[in-house]
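Field: sequence (string)
Field: structure_tokens (string)

Example rows 1 and 2, in order.
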Amino acid sequence: MKQDTAQGSFVVVVIVACAAWDVGAVELPSDQLLRDLETLRRNEAIASADYWSENAVAGRQCDGARVAELLVGIARTFEPVATRDQTLDVLKRHRIIWNDYWAHHALPGRMCKGEYVANLLRAAAAAVEERELVNRYGVAPGLVATPEPIAFTLAHARAEPAKFNYVLGTQTFAPAYQFTDKPRLVETAEAILDLGATVIKFELSPRYAQGRGNVPQPLPSVRSLTDLARDEPSHRQVLEMPFAHFVLWAHTFYGGEGKWRQGFSPESRVAEYREVYDLTAYLLRTYSGSDKTFYLGHWEGDGWLRGSVAPENDAEVTPAAVQGMADWLNARQRAVDDAKRDTPHQRVQVWHYTEVNHVKLAMQGRPALVNQVLPKTTVDLVSYSAYDTGKNPELLKAALGFIEANLPPKSAIAGRRVFIGEYGFPAVYHTPAETDRLSRQVIRAGLEWGCPLVLYWELYNNEVDADGKQRGFWMIDDRGIKQPIFKTHRHLYEDARRFVEKEIARAGRPPGDAAYRIAAFEFLANP
């Protein structure tokens, strides 16, 4: 999901298998092709890059017999193959090929279009690079034993199933359709609550009434995050709903997120600090005794720090930008810490997080928030918008471990401090069944690693193409049809709640984190 409005981000690389072929001009090999060939040579899929750098370009063709040998070489980097059918099967399972073009053209006496071979090499190199990262940063297989994540278990002491952290959840941002006359935020929050969730994620920001915002009309008196949470009726109504966990993009009315690229000035630090401090103090006072936990964060930080994953955008990660972003995050963290110190409260918590989204490229040694800014911060937690690794569960777990390794320790916060703040698989690219299968894969990986939250993007779709077509980041589509992923969440909540109730009846307290993750993993095995 890639969008201009900071409502979540997903970069989709589309490899075209049937592009128009221009037999006129011959292209020179691109820098990307040369990098891909080096990756494959390093992993012994090819012996030399010479033939492919000359012929795997638009306007040329590659000999079918040589392409057949290439396919075998690529497949053997993943597992042994002895036959052509085995080779094609391995490549399909690793998402390197996805149609029958190669079965018909990678043959002696046939030719393959150069640009198609370049696409093949790109897909193969990407798969090989992912395997390299898993080997370098991978974690132990299966469910990993970790301490209780205290930032996510405040309500557990109350032994109330309605306040238990069931890990799974969803969110609501700029929904593109509605089914009631209620404000968007209220309608979707009620639907998420009815689903069975004890967590919700939404936005507090100056644009709360802009476009497809949370509410249709602004209040002139709302000039800060505290005003919005306290005085705007729909926001206050949702904050008072019986969710136990509120994950909030808290983008200040001051606009600090847009003021740090050339350095975060003392004046900006004071203004950002004050607005976050006031919101934190308000939440602690207002919801003291409620067993609610609030997580104050922001949209995908790499979108601000470097923009896209394009290599030329590495230059956007300047020393001034890195230090400025770290200073901005640290000012917000200090505000949360100071408000917690200064404000009497009980049975309510507020934590501060940053969100990273270009983790895979950082694992490859390129600059991003996770490896440049995060080590300079004092943040409590990290949210991972996991579109760059979501289709590969082993790489996803490796990425979570990489984030945690770059997060400075805080002795007062035991357990995992990294959660999945976004993942999703849009209908424009995936069938409902495929979305459900891939989502279950993400959920299992999160449970295995010990993620305290795994949040699906989103309840209602927020992205619409220029021609009006819904892109399908949804649990409930624009016709009101509940998708398989909706039913997966609902069934897991039902099974998990019964499990928690039984544990409370048996032991007088809810299950611990490890016991719950084991049970949830088993529930997911059910169709």
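Row 2 begins here:
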Amino acid sequence: MLTRLACFRAAPFLLLACSSTEPLSIKPPTLVEAGDIWSAKPAADPVAETAPTADQPPPVQPEPEPVAEEPPWAFDQKGDRIGSISFRTWIWSEPMRSRDHLAIGSLRVGTSVKLKSKDPVPGQGCNNKWYAIEPHGFICSDVTTTLKFDSPYWKALAMLRPGKGAYPYQYAFSMGAPMYSRIPTRAEQASAERDMGKTNRFYSLGKWSEGHERLVTTKEEEGFKADGKGIPEFYDGTKGIEGSPWNPVMPKVKVIPAGSGFAYARAFEAEGRLWLLTPDLFLVPADRVWPYKTSDFKGVELDDEHTLPLAWVKPVAGKEKLRKEGERYAAAEGRFDGRKPVYLTGSNQRIGKIVYWETKDGAFIADDDDVSVVLPQKELKFKIKEDERWLQASILGGTMTAFIGLKPIYTTMWSPGLGGVPVKGNNPKKFATTELGIFPIQWKDKVELMSPDPGAPTVFWFADVPWIQYVHPPMAMHVSYWHEDFGYPMSAECLNTSAADGQWLFNFTLPKLPEDWGSVGAGRQNGPSTKIHIIP
């Protein structure tokens, strides 16, 4: 069975995280009342795009001329920009930083944003200069920032920005592995790992870690392989990267704790070993970690033909089809596909505790523990408007649906807290339950570390978790790249989604992430937030 890690405080500006199967994360620095390559433009709204009609075919586009690919940092050198070189750089609504003044967003390390002007503006609470950025907000040019984009260290960071798609990186599970700031010599490796045990070993770390091991693969054919690009150009033998904050004399900086997960952007061979390069420029030996498989699970977009009501079949093995024989239901030929929706006519019959639903293909399906039925909404509540975007998530059903007013747009399965439906008066974190209620989204991180550790994470973490949305901090909706048991309770409190669903929901909800920002908070210049209604 799965055990749980509660949601705890963690790193700078309050890192929080949730996990049973999940870690924890950053508490959004702003709270409101209800109401690709990183430098690419913001992702398209999933419901804003329109396709050509049948009598209006898409125009034929000429073949583009081949263009020489620019290095990632070339983008930063075009125009006046400011970049982040440390953890994250906060964005403020005014050029002022104080205890009662909260950030409205942030930049991710290794990324930059356009300045409104290269001239600084007056402000308070910054030991250096304030700059106005696009589309709004201000950044203090403190030690986390740079205005120069030609250093080897910046170029190295820029090359490891999150990629396009639902999975911005590849991911791995640690059995306890060193993190080096440069390529270590063989002698340095032997010295640094003297007490770390044998390599190429995998074993379950115990019940507390079972949820984190769900997608680990030990198959040789699915193992790590060099990406064929050779040693990154910013490494000069076993020397450190020029401009790196780490002491090159001691290459081993820290250890990824056993049971933790991390991201990597490159895989290459050097000094007799295969190395995985993390987005924050650490090298991890591949023989002390194991790869995570990716999940291809994704919900479905709805239209006039494919709409509610529908039934999600939760087991991978699928569900038997039924036929009606008088007043009873018997097995029919065939099965409904697992982890897929079955569209219903709306006609149903209850016999005892089971409700039998007629499907649009003429069969029947039993609404039992293997099935979750999603019904249309008959009325709007909580002052939700007819054109307003909102989400509804069911704990017992393990389903989530996106609406605009009463119109269903998208539906999927997710994993709630292991504790099931919360009991009034019980602490949801202590009992690992996802809270009930109507909540506005408070803060969104495109990619961020999550950890239950107070302060800088040292005991346990999951790095570079994508598509995080804080609902009622520390409770968040986020991707779980370590499991795909959606539809079933798995978390400590948070709402676990697949990578594809996480990306779709992130792009659907408000506030939208401004171009080149890494995080955004609701309210003020960023506008209102989408509400999520969590029901039993």
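free_text_note (row 2): Residues 55 and 337 are 35 Å apart (CA to CA).
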